[in-house]
Design goal:
Among the domains are: about 240 residues, no CATH class; about 250 residues; about 35 residues, no CATH class; about 45 residues, no CATH class. The protein starts with 8 loop residues before the first strand and ends in an 8-residue tail after the last helix. It contains 27 helices and 16 strands. The strands form four sheets. Strands 3-9-8-7-6-5-4-14-16-15 form a ten-stranded mixed β-sheet. Strands 1-2 form a two-stranded antiparallel ribbon. This is Lysophospholipase. Its EC number is 3.1.1.5.
């Protein structure tokens, strides 16, 4: 039961206007790729000085007492029940945080409030430690500025400085000074304004909303409501897609379709956008209930539901062309947006709120990375068009509450290494071979997911409202600051950094990104084999520290499953990173109970789709969770299977005479030529390759013993999808080279590297064309698959209805016979 409360809020109008920041900033046209490496290096060094968050607690909370001044410059009156924390009801399992009040689509009804907030004055609230902390940060700006100036003058010399040093280095001190002033927390500064609004319930209403941890394995109520409304839209869309009258489509027969994109940085973002656009033009995207992403595909979803994308993938491609031609770390472009209105306020809000609102906050490399991503991706070509509505994931519910669009799922993982403390160098704490062996055998990744409604971890069986991400929790309840307010929702730029933090990968994942290039070089096969032998050790080493958010599961040991690791209960923060560390396809969240997907469409733009084999990796998760219907064994054929096939062919080719051997070789060659080509796939001759579109289907039949289920084969006939025991259908689109788009190969084209952050218009067109060509190869096969699944569900429903009708008929007949036996048998006219 929600805690009872009552509150009355009256806010007088604020002053007529706030400070205006409309200074014109210098613009630079020098965006050549040749400066990208230098720019990245300089920005990282500069960021370390300017954006390094001191570990001093950066609070501006007001002192206790009735005479203290409030956060606001206008009166605020709040009447609220403020119970003793000891008297709060216990959080129970399966207890949700459903809103008591009904809300309009896209608007969050305010939850209960049990804590009032008092008034304070920001200028008086800064204590000595706060002033010292901010003063230290200001000094770091000065140090960065002086180091650049001194480097240019004393070490390079004026005569050759213009030749060796990029032009933007000369104006860097000006940008740094400007950003320094904005973040100084001085009266009238941008940071002061941001922190003022962070404590304004009128601007951030979630700061007075009560939030608690929902302990349940089921999906939340808001998502169930979404599914009901989305079914109405997908019913009409399916009729249009399959070209059948809408009257023939029963809502119960409509397949639940999920579409997901892989990780892979900007390659995955651009290729995924093109694939989704192709699906949208074919009418398929409108039939989708869920979309899910990893890394670059998370950025894709963010843009789609923003004012930049406006729910149009075609518009997104135009936006990418206008923004990706400059490196995300190019200092003039980034610092100009971070120090000039109106973009500076929106981009820096998350930074200021985190640095001042979270004790011991560590603003690290992932946060800088997310900030840079925000400057490139969330800012439209016309910078004045930037929207504050795009910077909170919970705001995306305005597009999903009515069921008009699919529900997006964003993913990240936490690396759990047993018996290893979560320190900055936790992977190096393995002191002996025993602890190494334990960590190697037991380390795993915990998956976390975001939707516009909830932030959830399936392994913990717990989640919180999305608007509550960033605040502290204890024992399942919000922990308010001294002023009775919570922090605003964690901003999108910081989340984008977490979702795409591939550089926080283990050394093993780093090598997987460059392995295709290494293996193609002559003489490097030995090095590849040597590194492969040490892969298990490399999976425990993280060169860069992941980002941290407050741990919502703190002090909930008695309520969470016993399988939860002990470390979850003992840490104040959760270190999250790119979900591609575990699986570069976001399949696991889509298999959660309650989502009940029938068709999974996966667009895989991973660095090495063949070697990584992410579809196959899902088998282990399915076995662990006991999920029925997944096509076990789906994915790229393994090398071991290829070797067995080769040995079998060699045995069959053995002959006692040269003539017989020649005859068998000719027969094998003729048989190979006579093999039919799978429509839509154009499967290569080698059994180790898949086509542009491959379909597998699982089975729902129960196994009577613990034996391994039979491996699923590629679907070549539609009737295989219509078997009564058919399970989940997986449609797989790997990002492969296509002869229809010559000169473009994801494996060899340098600009498609995961670590490339500059795409020209021509390169974007190449990626878009390749993704379109690959989708066209499997377009008809995809439609036939979805039609077959719909017909199977339709047949099941009709069979159930016929069976129920027969049962009712037999029941009536038994009643009639019983009446005839004991009653009147009729008259002469019967």
């Amino acid at each position: 039961m929600l805690r009872s409360s009552a509150f009355h809020l009256r806010i007088k109008p604020r002053a007529a206007c706030r400070r205006l920041l409309h200074q014109a900033s210098p613009t630079f046209k020098d965006t050549r790729k040749g400066t990208a490496g230098v720019a990245a290096a300089v920005l990282v060094v500069t960021g370390a000085y300017t954006l390094g968050c001191p570990r001093q607690v950066l609070y501006a909370d007001s002192p206790e007492g009735p005479d203290s001044q409030g956060w606001f410059s206008w009166p605020v009156v709040v009447k609220a029940i403020t119970p003793d924390p000891k008297e709060l009801p216990k959080v129970s399992k399966a207890e949700g945080y459903d809103n008591a009040n009904q809300s309009r689509p896209g608007q969050q009804a305010p939850p209960s409030q049990t804590k009032g907030h008092k008034n304070s004055d920001i200028s008086e609230a800064l204590n000595d430690s706060d002033v010292s902390a901010w003063h230290g940060m200001i000094e770091s700006f000065e140090t960065a500025k002086d180091s650049i100036v001194n480097f240019e003058i004393s070490k390079i010399g004026e005569k050759i400085a213009g030749t060796i040093v990029p032009r933007w280095v000369k104006v860097m001190p000006g940008y740094i000074s400007k950003l320094q002033n904005e973040l100084s927390m001085a009266p009238g500064s941008l940071a002061e304004e941001i922190w003022h609004e962070a404590n304004d319930p009128e601007i951030n209403p979630e700061i007075i909303w009560d939030a608690r941890v929902r302990v349940s394995d089921d999906i939340c109520k808001e998502e169930r409501d979404f599914l009901r409304k989305r079914k109405i839209h997908t019913t009409a869309a399916l009729a249009k897609y399959l070209d059948v009258p809408e009257t023939e489509i029963h809502p119960a027969d409509v397949p639940t379709i999920a579409m997901c994109g892989s990780g892979g940085g900007l390659r995955a973002l651009v290729a995924g956008t093109s694939s989704y656009l192709s699906a949208q033009e074919a009418g398929l995207f409108d039939c989708v209930t869920y979309t899910a992403g990893v890394s670059g595909s998370c950025w894709l979803q963010t843009l789609f539901y923003s004012s930049v994308g406006q729910q149009s993938h075609g518009r997104m491609i135009n936006h990418l062309k206008s923004r990706l031609n400059v490196h995300i770390a190019y200092p003039p472009a980034a610092l100009s947006l971070l120090s000039s209105a109106p973009t500076s306020k929106y981009l820096l809000s998350g930074v200021v709120e985190k640095m001042k609102g979270v004790p011991d906050a560590d603003f690290g490399l992932v946060d800088v990375y997310g900030l840079l991503l925000g400057t490139r991706l969330l800012v439209p070509k016309g910078e004045l068009g930037i929207s504050d509505n795009d910077f909170k994931i919970s705001n995306q519910r305005q597009h999903t509450d009515s069921g008009a669009y699919p529900l997006p799922i964003y993913t990240a993982v936490r690396h759990e290494i047993p018996n290893v403390a979560q320190t900055q160098d936790r992977a190096m704490n393995l002191q002996d071979e025993t602890s190494k062996a334990i960590a190697r055998a037991e380390a795993w990744f915990q998956w976390f997911e975001w939707t516009p409604y909830e932030f959830f971890c399936e392994e913990l069986g717990a989640g919180i409202p999305t608007w509550a991400i960033g605040r502290k929790f204890d024992g399942g309840y919000s922990v308010y600051r001294d002023n009775g307010l919570a922090l605003p929702e964690l901003r999108v730029p910081l989340l984008m950094g977490i979702w795409g933090s591939a550089f926080c990968a283990t050394l093993s994942h780093y090598y997987k990104e460059v392995r295709p290039i290494i293996r193609s070089l002559a003489g490097f096969s030995g090095i590849d084999q040597l590194i492969a032998e040490k892969d298990e050790d490399l999976t425990k080493v993280h060169p860069f520290e992941p980002a941290s958010i407050p741990n919502f599961a703190a002090n909930m040991k008695s309520l969470l499953p016993q399988s939860c690791p002990e470390s979850v209960h003992n840490v104040s923060t959760l270190q999250l990173m790119d979900a591609g560390m575990s699986n570069n396809l976001p399949i696991y969240p889509l298999l959660r109970p309650g989502r009940d997907i029938d068709v999974l469409i996966a667009f895989d733009a991973s660095a090495d789709v063949r070697q990584d084999n992410w579809i196959k990796v899902t088998d282990g998760y399915v076995k662990q969770r006991g999920i029925k219907g997944w096509p076990m064994g789906a994915g790229w054929p393994t090398e071991e299977l290829n070797e067995e096939q080769t040995l079998k062919e060699l045995e069959q080719a053995q002959a006692t005479t040269e003539e017989e051997a020649t005859k068998r070789v000719e027969e094998a060659q003729n048989a190979e030529k006579s093999k039919p080509v799978v429509e839509g796939g154009k499967v290569p001759a080698k059994p180790s390759d898949l086509g542009y579109c491959t379909v597998w289907v699982g089975t729902t039949e129960e196994r009577e013993n613990d034996t391994e289920p039979p491996l699923s084969k590629q679907v070549e006939e539609d009737w295989e999808l219509m078997r009564p025991d058919a399970g989940i259908a997986v449609i797989y689109f790997p990002f492969l080279k296509n002869k229809k788009v010559p000169g473009v190969d994801p494996q060899t084209s340098d600009f498609m590297s995961t670590w490339n952050f500059v795409y020209t218009d021509e390169e974007i067109d190449k990626v878009v064309s390749l993704a379109r060509a690959n989708f066209e190869e499997g377009r008809e096969q995809t439609k036939r698959t979805i039609r077959a699944v719909w017909e199977r569900k339709r047949k099941h429903r009709l069979d159930r209805e016929a069976e129920a009708k027969e049962i009712r008929r037999q029941t009536r007949m038994r009643k009639v016979n019983r009446y005839k036996q004991y009653g009147d048998h009729g008259d002469q006219f019967s």
